Amino acid sequence: MLMIRTFKRFIGFCDISADRSAKPLADHFFFNISRPEYICDENKLVAQIYNGTAVMSGSHYGLQTLIRHKYKYATYIHCYAHKLDLVLKQSVSHVKECKIFFKKLNEFAVFFSKSTKRINELNLIVKKQFPAISPTSLNYNSRLINTEVEHKEKNKTINADYCR
């Protein structure tokens, strides 16, 4: 009997802010996948998943195409979590209480991200920063909500101090 094992590996986070076009992203991918701990047989990389942005999914010059030149079995799979996130945002935007909650939560996060003095004070009281504002990040709202829930009482104190 032939034993086949599938592996899913997380390689790491990296700063790609300098250039987010397909070629530099592909170069970065090839550099990381060729590291000794991740060396991958060209026939064994069978999937690549992105959020569907043009730079990722472009059929002629997108990242997935550049990767498929070297890894011919690396089939592109669209990540539907992004669409789900948009659907959820749209659905709660029609519920008044949810709309108010998310608006206030975002305002709170923005307020504490625009001043080093406020950031330091938040760190002193809560011992944690709010996640950076990123409307395109799928995980942003859940991290922000978890931070708020986890430190609700301390945040009330901070709010009261700044609202005086």
From TrEMBL:
Superkingdom in the source lineage: Eukaryota
InterPro entries documented for this protein: RNaseH-like_sf
PANTHER family: PTHR45749, ZINC FINGER MYM-TYPE PROTEIN 1-LIKE-RELATED (PTHR45749:SF28)
Protein name as catalogued: Zinc finger MYM-type protein 1
Source species of the chain: Sipha flava
